[in-house]
Amino acid sequence: MTFTYKHTKYAAYIGYITQAIINNLMPLLFVSFERDFGLSLDKISFLITMNFAVQILTDLVAARQADRIGYRTLTVLAHILAVIGLSGLCVLPYWMNPYAALLICSAVNAVGGGLTEVVISPIVEALPGDEKASAMSILHSFYCWGQVAVVLLSTAFFLCFGRENWRYVPILWAIIPFFNGILFSKVPIRTLNEEGEGMGFVELCKTKIFWLFLLLMICAGASELAMSQWASYFAEDGLRVTKTLGDLLGPCLFAVLMGIARTFYGIKGEKIDLRKAIGFSGCLCVISYLVAVFAPSPILSLFGCAVCGLSVGLMWPGTYSLASKYFPQGGTVLFAVLALAGDVGCTGGPTLAGLVANGTGNLKTGLLAAAVFPVVMAACLLSGMLEKLSKKNA
């Protein structure tokens, strides 16, 4: 079989589905971890922190080594680690200390996830064609559709076989990275720049606008993950709705609306002012957090969780595309450092929500605290700060 760049694109899409599995499967199991292993809320919160903290460390290392090691090697390695981490969830908690086992599996998955973030976006950016922003948004929409699949299919499994059999769900999901790793070993892959041609980290750091993009990525990751990581637990434990209803109206609808936002921009992106679109997305995100926290009924609170997905849909891929526009020679280093900043947000947002919730005994208070991130993002983009720094940088 002859593999073309079309197959490369498909492999990249499935790679982001794998990323969705890594980030969103364990939150569906938080209540099971709490009940089966007696984990406290702060220990569960640390699982989220561990995941994204390890992804940050992976981003740091991969940012310096990706061009030298090669995109193909790193993508295949990322999928191998995802298979190991997911499969480990099935067996390790029953062979050793359960919490230590969960931390190990989370760390292994996180290395795979970090490598995925660093290399797959530049692989898509380097594909032949001119519509880079649209291609990036479509790529990231597959993260959303992967999240939808994780919630729907995992929920179907729980309904059919019972939540007590949750341990078999991760190993079933491991099938996807197993076969996609094989596909990535075959498809053609281009690089953004030959080694040494792209901008270096020090050169990027000398521009103030680069630091603004780092702040935007932190806010994007925190705004998205603070809600998506806690939505299932929030629905079941905080709103007292059933597991099935909570997952379908919370994290599942969140992911559907996030995917719709990214797919829409992928199709109509050329006609949209990206800066204003992300800024107004930040405003909508603040509103959705407030609805989730203060709504008088559980259904309205779940509606706020879901609309948050629509509001954050454009934040991550849109910031990537804006940064790529302002730094066309940024290369792999640019994407790696942006991924690192995004993972800082992915760590900080859910962790802040979890710590505040643990201190106050109320997850609504934790989510309210996390609303500071979309506030900052909207303020940065709608105040004209990007244009001012761009003129100074010119």
If you had to describe this structure to a student in words, what would you say it looks like?
- With 394 residues, the chain is mostly helical.
- The protein has one domain (5-393): Growth Hormone, Chain: A (Up-down Bundle).
- It contains 18 helices and no strands.
- The longest helix is centred in the middle third of the chain and has 31 residues, at 208-238.
- It is globular and about 50 Å long.
- The N and C termini lie far apart (48 Å).
Helix/strand layout:
Elements lengths: L4 H24 L1 H8 L3 H29 L1 H21 L6 H28 L6 H30 L6 H6 L1 H10 L16 H5 L2 H31 L4 H26 L5 H21 L3 H15 L2 H12 L4 H30 L2 H8 L1 H11 L2 H9 L1
Short description:
This protein is mostly helical and 394 residues long.
**What is the straight-line distance between the termini?**
48 Å
| CA-based gyration radius | 20 Å
CATH homologous superfamily heading: MFS general substrate transporter like domains
Which stretches are poorly predicted, pLDDT < 50 over at least 5 residues?
A: none
Provide the β-strand percentage band.
under 5%
- How many DSSP E strands? 0
Our count of domains comes out at 1
Proportion of residues in helical segments: over 70%
Largest sheet: none
CATH topology: Growth Hormone, Chain: A
H-E string: HHHHHHHHHHHHHHHHHH
What's the overall average pLDDT, rounded?
84
| CATH architecture heading | Up-down Bundle
CATH domain class = Mainly Alpha
Number of helices: 18
Q: Would you tell me the structural class of the helices and strands?
A: mainly alpha
Shape: globular
